[in-house]
Amino acid sequence: EAMLAGLQQLTQPADPAVAEMPRMLLVLAAGVTEQQVDVAALQRVFSQARAAERPISLVIVGFGSDFTGEFSSLPANPDGLATLARVLGGQYIAMGSGLPDVRAKQRLTSQLTALLQQGEQFQLQGTVQRAQAGDGTLTVEVGPLQVSRQVIIPTRPTSFIVAADTSNPAQARFSIATQFEQTPIQTVEYALNGTTLEQRGISGPNFDLPVNTSAAWFQQRYPPGSYQLSATAFDAAGQPITNSTNTVNITIAPPPVGTSAFDVLSAMWLLALLLLGVVGVGGWFAVQRFRSG
Q1: Taking each helix axis from N to C terminus, what angle separates 78-87 and 39-51, rounded to the nearest 10 degrees?
Q2: What DSSP assignment string belongs to 237-269?
Q3: CA 218, 235, 245: angle at the middle one, nearest 5?
């Protein structure tokens, strides 16, 4: 009955994703002498599977012995199991009444390996963000099949890329692009050549920091030239995240001519002087003309 139930599961309509996968019925038994086996019913199922060009492999692993004194706690009929495997076109592997010997282990391993080699094998690779290090459960689903196993999630450093857009000095932006984040990033600090910018504790999706690099205070602290922009991430407790510092080279350009406060003030003074000069010259010509008149 157990074999028929197993065959029923193997022959029921399958999801297209697994419909072409190889099938095997693995039987672990001692072969009780009094048990009646419906051999004809089993033969029909195996014959139908072969006719449909989707054969079912059969491997019977027999435990126990029928020798007196070797296995007396549970009746066993290894010869009956061997005969059943031969009639159904399967393989019989005798494990005996004690620990299996090397030959039995090799036969069982070769049978399972042969089955695996018939099917498609996939190597899955992926990244799970914010998966805490330690014990975890990995579940793989293929159609209606679902397999889970315990895994150990290793500790991996958080990694990200520092980005800078300085094409418009008045609206420059510093940001990061997260690549892997096991420990959630709460805030980020940016620094130029190791000197931390005054704006600290930057948060947000990309941790954007808008900066006017042409401003007088910025130019005074960071004169025009080449700099190394770095970013350091911090967790919720304010602790720096291990191996989280990345750098990118940027150029701080001088402010455009005529846009600084000094330039504007100078231009205003020049304009005032010009206006005074024009008024003075105009007044002088008016006086001379009056005298001539």
Answers
A1: 30
A2: TSPBPTT--EEEEEEEPPPPTT-SHHHHHHHHH
A3: 55
This prediction's pTM: 0.46
Greatest pairwise CA separation for the chain in angstroms: 154
**E strand map for 30-144:** 56-63, 91-96, 134-142
Residue 258 pLDDT more than 70?
Answer: no
Burial 193-205 (b: 16+ CB within 10 A, else e): eeeebeeeebeee
pLDDT in tens, 15-37: 665 667 778 888 888 766 556 77
Local structure of residue 170 (DSSP, 8 states): G
Sheet holding 187-192, edge to edge: 195-196, 187-192, 225-234, 246-252
Three-state DSSP at 94 gives: strand
Torsional sign, CA 117, 120, 125, 130: negative
Q: Does 272 score more than 60 pLDDT?
A: no
Cα–Cα distance for residue pair 67/88, rounded to 1 Å: 25
**Helices 2-11, 39-51: inter-axial angle, 10-degree rounding:** 20
Can you tell me the distance from the alpha carbon of 66 to that of 96, in angstroms, rounded to the nearest whole number?
Answer: 9
Say if residues 29 and 63 touch (Cβ distance below 8 Å): yes
Q: For residues 96 and 65, is the Cβ–Cβ distance under 8 A?
A: yes
3-state secondary structure of 231: strand
Alpha helices (runs of H) in 160-260, residue ranges in sequence order: 216-221
